[in-house]
Amino acid sequence: VANTDTYLSDFTYALREVLVPALSRVSYNGYTYEYNIDLIDDMVPLDDFLTATITLKDDIKFSNGDPLIAEDFKAYYEMIKSMYSVLPEPWSLISSVEVVCDSVFTIKLTDRCDIASVLHEFRAISKRWLDDFVKKGEDPFEHISEIPVYGKYQVERFESDYRIRLTANECYLWAADTLITDIDIYWFSDVPSNMMGFQAGEFDISFNFIEMDDEGFLEWSSECHQYDDRSRFFLGIGKESPLCRNYGELQLQGLIKI
């Protein structure tokens, strides 16, 4: 078991990676980024070092069976742009994304830099699925468990103030290699609920996260405490998963190392 007391961002990054992995990921040394070869078949930077052409691997699918294509990465980029008046890094380092064909797209940067570091949050969202909701005038993110994903796991159940249940994504390209198929993650905003649940055997593993700021993913379910101006967040891994037999396989930075 690693990093039992860490920043909340480590957990949310790991959660994003198992649901919608990015085009690059944290290297095993924990300090640099490397291209995600599970998604990228080829990456060619142009001579100007401002433009890169990315070719996706074949046969990657969303959990609903739709193929993962270049348009889905551009759709994610456009969605991020619509969310901010001033883009934060690494998005501010990208000037444009252009689709060449279903498997190829180009990314143009605003300045020369390490492309792998720019791509560590560059993910995809099903454009076909998103467009259907836009046509209906509905909120596509109202039901989180219905969002198509392309990582090792998908969301089977989401309770905004209590827990998230992950199950193996059967459409994942290497689904047969997924040893742990069901994971329940519970979160708490106070010490007593976390400790009582752990002592009662409601879950197997308990973590204490620290968040430096009062804003962040799932912050609405946490409670701010005055510990060096940090808020704390408590997490339990449910007994319904076989993690109690695989403590050595639990790795917070990657959520599950299988």
Describe the structure.
It is a single chain. This protein is an alpha+beta fold. Helix content is 19%, strand content 32%. It has 5 helices and 15 strands. The strands form 4 sheets. Strands 1, 8, 9, 10, 11, 12 and 13 form a 7-stranded mixed sheet that branches. Strands 4-5-7-6 form a 4-stranded antiparallel sheet, with helices on one face. The chain has a two-stranded antiparallel sheet with strand order 2-3. Strand 4 and strand 5 (51-56) form a beta hairpin. The longest helix has 14 residues, at 70-83.
Q: In terms of topology, how is this protein built?
A:
Blueprint: E1 5-7, H1 8-19, E2 24-26, E3 33-35, E4 40-45, E5 51-56, H2 70-83, E6 94-101, E7 104-109, H3 115-118, H4 127-136, E8 153-159, E9 163-168, E10 182-188, H5 191-199, E11 203-211, E12 223-227, E13 230-238, E14 250-251, E15 255-256
Parallel strand pairs: 1-11
Antiparallel strand pairs: 2-3, 4-5, 5-7, 6-7, 8-9, 9-10, 10-13, 11-13, 12-13, 14-15
